[in-house]
Write a structure and sequence with these properties.
Elements lengths: L55 E2 L8 E3 L2 E16 L2 E8 L8 E4 L3 E8 L8 E3 L23 E7 L4 E6 L4 H6 L4 E6 L19 E12 L12 E4 L10 E4 L3 E8 L5 E5 L4 E6 L2 E2 L7 E2 L1 E4 L4 E7 L4 E7 L8 H17 L12 E2 L2 E2 L6 E7 L44 E6 L6
């Protein structure tokens, strides 16, 4: 069974909340659903509409589950995947169920989860549930809590969720190298009672109209034979780079939640233009109201989860981008200076005339690096509308304008993607000789 390439925009259709009657194997293992594209999938509505407002994973999807008695059963398959980083560029990463990062797992506090994990990699793996209180034997550290899951094996993890919040699933067998290959996914546990202010750690987050899951990571790309070493790392957002990262959309006045995690090797900071971000929760629970502050930039430490919120302000196209200074010879800097296409061209011989999407706005090239996308705020937007509304049309008076010119401006060359052409890059596993 495959999740078809659904058009988020055209269909507006929703995947079923549970796998109805999936084929059950000899071991009672549910089918593993796969996504075959990096297209953002519609939110997976809960069986009871009032249970929670589902999240949307940017350029990703939510994993359907099977109900079996008291258990919600999921099936993750760790495997090599070919992930489109941006139009025209495909990277060979490791992921789950066809994509990297893996699909988001969504449930309600108190739900009992049984997660089957099948290893289709060339080496052992495990799954650790970062931030979730699980029995130590379920904590997923290979060698300590369990034997590593060998290639070809399937393990079952079982635990009852106690907290609500934002958590991660990621390997803890050769953990750092496997993370750098793209193995990770988000777990979102919604509060059981959205109205009650009991002991729930999410009670300070009563609700957001839009709830996005964004995992930041960094990868080393292998150079082509005969080319100089690739500047690294290349930072990605849900294993996508600008201009391949979907826009986040919101209606004016809506509360927007960004469930952010950083799987990369160092901290990054993110800036949102035109808005104030407030960290409402971390991977350990809600931040008390008295300890919060608003800022245009937030820190995202390595390995950490941060849940940032903002209220969508005036209509416009606002930048959400990595605020780290450049100047080092990294893939990010190359992309920032010359655009994604030039970065790829410089690294890979076959890409000399690769027309990878270069990243243009309505007024020219956008040279902001790969960790960059837009928050598109519009005055009128239906609650379930996540379509990219196109470019914002600012009135003449509300736009910066040239008032004097000393000479001719440099022409900007526009690289248009050519249909059917794409480049594939190998991702270098740390510690390997590639
Ligand atoms: Cu900025």
């Amino acid at each position: 069974m495959r999740v078809s390439r659904r058009n988020f925009i055209a269909s507006g259709a929703l995947m079923g909340a549970a796998m109805a009657g999936g084929r059950v194997g000899a071991a009672g293992i549910p089918d593993a659903l796969r996504a075959d594209s990096a297209r953002m999938q519609p939110p997976l509505l809960p069986a009871t509409a009032s249970a929670y407002r589902p999240v949307v994973t940017l350029n990703g999807w939510t994993l359907p589950f099977r109900r079996n008695g008291a258990w919600n059963e999921f099936h993750l398959v760790a495997e090599p995947v070919a992930r489109e980083l941006a139009p025209g560029l495909v990277a060979h990463l490791w992921g789950y169920n066809g994509q990297s990062p893996g699909p988001t797992i969504e449930c309600v506090a108190g739900d009992k989860l049984r997660v089957f994990v099948t290893n289709r990699l060339v080496e052992p793996t495990t799954v650790h549930w970062q931030g979730l209180a699980v029995p130590s034997g379920m904590a997923g550290l290979g060698g300590l809590a369990q034997p590593p899951i060998a290639p070809g094996e399937t393990y079952a993890y079982e635990f009852e969720t106690q907290q609500s919040g934002t958590f991660l699933y990621r390997p803890h067998a050769d953990a750092r190298a496997q993370a750098a290959m793209g193995l990770a996914g988000a777990i979102v546990v919604h509060p059981r009672d959205r109205t009650q202010c009991g002991a729930d750690r999410d009670r300070a987050q009563p609700g957001a109209s839009r709830d996005y899951v964004i995992l930041v990571n960094a990868h080393a790309l292998a150079p082509a034979r005969g080319r100089p070493a690739m500047p690294t790392p290349l930072w990605t957002c849900n294993s996508r780079i600008f201009p391949g990262i979907d826009a986040l959309v919101a209606a004016t006045g809506e509360r927007v939640r960004l469930r952010l995690a950083n799987l990369g090797p160092s901290g990054v900071s993110l800036e949102l233009h035109g808005h104030a971000l407030t960290v409402a929760a971390t991977g350990g629970g809600a931040v008390p109201e008295s300890a919060r502050w608003a800022d245009s930039v937030i820190d995202l430490p390595a390995g950490a989860v941060r849940v940032a919120e903002f209220t969508a302000g005036s209509a416009g196209d606002w930048a959400l981008h990595c605020a780290l200074p450049g100047g080092f010879e990294s893939a990010d800097d190359a992309a920032a200076r010359h655009g994604t296409a030039a970065l790829i061209r410089s690294a890979v011989r076959e890409a000399r005339d690769l027309p990878a999407a270069a990243g243009f706005g309505p007024y020219g090239p956008i040279a902001m690096g790969p960790l960059f996308t837009f928050v598109k705020v519009r005055d009128a937007l239906a609650a379930d509308d996540y379509r990219d509304p196109g470019w914002f049309q600012a009135t003449h008076a509300a736009r910066a304008r040239m008032v004097a010119s000393a000479g001719a401006t440099a022409p900007s060359r526009r690289a248009e993607p050519v249909a059917g052409r794409q480049l594939e890059v190998k991702v270098v596993k740390p510690g390997s000789r590639a």
